[in-house]
Amino acid sequence: MREKIETFVKCNMDDMLADISKLIAIRSVRGESEPGMPFGRGPAEAMACAEAIAIRHGFKVKHFDGYAMEINLNDGPDELGILCHLDVVHEGSGWTSPPFQADIREGRIYGRGASDNKGPAVAALYALKCVRDSGIPLSKNTRLILGADEECGSSDLKEYFKRQSAPPYSFSPDAAFPVYNIEKGRYSPSFFAEFEESESLPRIIEVEGGRAVNVVPDEAVALTEGLEKKALLELAQAFENKAGVDFELDEADGKIRICAKGLSTHASYPEDGKNALTALIGLLASAPFAECEGFRRLKSVNALFPHGDYLGEALGIRMEDEISGPLTCNLGMFKYSPSGLSGAFDARCPVCADESAVQTAAGAFLEKGLKLSSDSMLAAHYVPEELPFIQTLLQAYEAFSGQKGECVSMGGGTYVHGIKNSVAFGPSFPDTDTYAHAADECAVIAELEACVKIFAQVIIDMCG
């Protein structure tokens, strides 16, 4: 069977890259909803293109009101699901080639969606084709599910699973190999406080930092009034040494603007970044501003999110377990004015976490005079490594990659979070950077070839 799989891939790679290129050419960023197009024209066009590709390869396609579609390998009872999405994030800037025009060079295919997730979606379709064309008798079905809203909350799957039951086992090639069987839970509430403005000097006029709660802020700014620049500069220089964040001070019209510059990273790995926002709040909290309710509330925020505490120690929610590691915490957004403040943080919670962690955090905010939104925690997603399905995935990966298969935990969530017996599996190999969500997103062509082989083997092992 391995020889048949290898031969199929060798003979079909040019066609597969051509099909991926057709999908990359469509700007399937979510847009305004239209009749039959719940996520706008771009995602709808990508779905139509994928349908045409599937029909050309001899598959039947079932639609679900523009939210998703499915392609079935045969008419047998469902055993395996493969979940992929055809929507993409905004292209952004900094590309070396047009983002919606596939560019094949140096063993990679470049373009928005090449790795996230159009390339893997086509690879999964070709895996179905490989197994079908091999003529191996199968007793069960594999269902390829294609959605159109993963990047904006996966409302596509919510609608799809209202109409269809989930397959007994599923994987999504929307992360990396080997197998991500644990995805941490998430708790991302907002907080706020209101107070009367004080004109006593020196004072803080405004603070702002962060673009998204799930990103470590690399820049934050504050405007102060009534402090001498020399005194504030001395505090900033002292704080720089221990914070690892740079401060720039500019004075104009009796006011001082402070800009903190750190290092951005995803909130699921806050230890890899340098949070400019917590550093700036820490600096301000240490300065001799006039006592007022607003300054006291800002110092409360500093007490709950001291710079460098990315484990939730000050919030009282530090915890970890052996299989998924520690809880991590990121203050991602914050605004302060003379009459109020608001912010939001992102905690990635291990398998052992439950709603008691949420209650503990709420109590800590209440004690500091801050109000917290009543958001509940999204529980961690965990599929035991001992499950035969997981072992089947690992064996197929080892057979065609030559690398050791193992289960890995991640701080982020994938397309299958919350779906029973479902894991992230592929498409890129360990240590491969595909620049997903960034400029020059790409997929390694040899790794897409491997995906077809690995997925085909999994289908045979699960459904044969």
SSE layout and pairing:
Layout: H1 2-24, H2 41-56, E1 61-64, E2 68-72, E3 78-85, E4 103-105, E5 108-110, H3 118-134, E6 141-147, H4 155-163, E7 169-172, E8 175-176, E9 179-183, E10 185-187, E11 190-194, E12 203-209, E13 219-225, H5 229-243, E14 246-252, E15 255-261, H6 276-286, H7 293-304, E16 320-321, E17 325-326, E18 328-337, E19 340-349, H8 355-367, E20 371-372, E21 381-382, H9 388-401, E22 407-410, E23 422-424, E24 427-428, E25 442-444, H10 445-463
Parallel strand pairs: 3-6, 3-7, 7-23, 8-24, 9-22
Antiparallel strand pairs: 1-2, 2-6, 4-5, 5-25, 9-21, 10-19, 11-19, 11-20, 12-13, 12-18, 13-15, 14-15, 16-17, 18-19
Helix pairs in contact: 1-3, 1-10, 3-10, 5-6, 6-7, 9-10
Structure characterization notes:
- The protein has about 475 residues and is of the alpha+beta class.
- It folds into two domains: about 1-185 and about 380-464, Zn peptidases (Aminopeptidase, 3-Layer(aba) Sandwich), CATH 3.40.630; about 185-370, Alpha-Beta Plaits.
- It has helices at about 1-25, 40-55, 120-135, 155-165, 230-245, 275-285, 295-305, 355-365, 390-400, 445-464; strands at about 60-65, 70, 80-85, 105, 110, 140-145, 170, 175, 180-185, 185, 190-195, 205-210, 220-225, 245-250, 255-260, 320, 325, 330-335, 340-350, 370, 380, 405-410, 420-425, 425-430, 440-445.
- Strands 10, 11, 12, 13, 14, 15, 18, 19 and 20 form a nine-stranded antiparallel sheet that branches. The chain has a six-stranded mixed sheet with strand order 1-2-6-3-7-23, with helices on both faces. It has a three-stranded antiparallel sheet with strand order 4-5-25.
- A hairpin with a 3-residue loop joins strand 16 and strand 17.
- The model has no long low-confidence stretch (mean pLDDT about 95).
